[in-house]
Amino acid sequence: MPVDFSGTWNFVSSDNFEGYMLALGIDFATRKIAKLLKPKKVIEQDGDSFSIHTTSTFRNYSVQFKIGEEFEEDNKGLDNRKCKSVVTWDGDKLVCVQTGEKKNRGWSHWIEGDELYLELRCEDQVSQQVFKRA
Ligand code: YOG
Prior knowledge:
- This protein is mainly β.
- The chain contains two helices and ten strands; from the N terminus they run E-H-H-E-E-E-E-E-E-E-E-E.
- The longest helix is centred in the first third of the chain and has 7 residues, at 17-23.
- Bound molecules: 1,3-dihydroxypropan-2-yl (9Z)-octadec-9-enoate.
């Protein structure tokens, strides 16, 4: 049985989100707002199909995918760069590779106890976010 990421997850903490946003070229004013946000994640997992909704008081972002199936991602409301994304399992970790203009771009999700972890990668920057089950 694979891990079940389904549920509602509330933001707990993050580190180096600023570095990640700088690597994505997010402007100063947007970074100042974004670093204060406490986003919520709602994840629906049905077999190999996932939807991840990230919501905040400033912007929302949603993505849907099937494990192993490449899809076009528009990153609308984030950095707005298009990329080709694919998500696979690495053991109990969900690993997304986002191929496009930015090197080494992607993210990973995993669960520890009642906490959801998200590692965001872009170029030489790594940011980690922690969420707790609502
Ligand atoms: O999640 O890709 O769960 O999509 C990354 C923000 C901030 C907007 C958030 C809005 C990147 C301004 C999504 C934050 C910084 C800053 C709430 C992370 C870009 C712009 C939407 C993400 C994956 C994995 C699923």
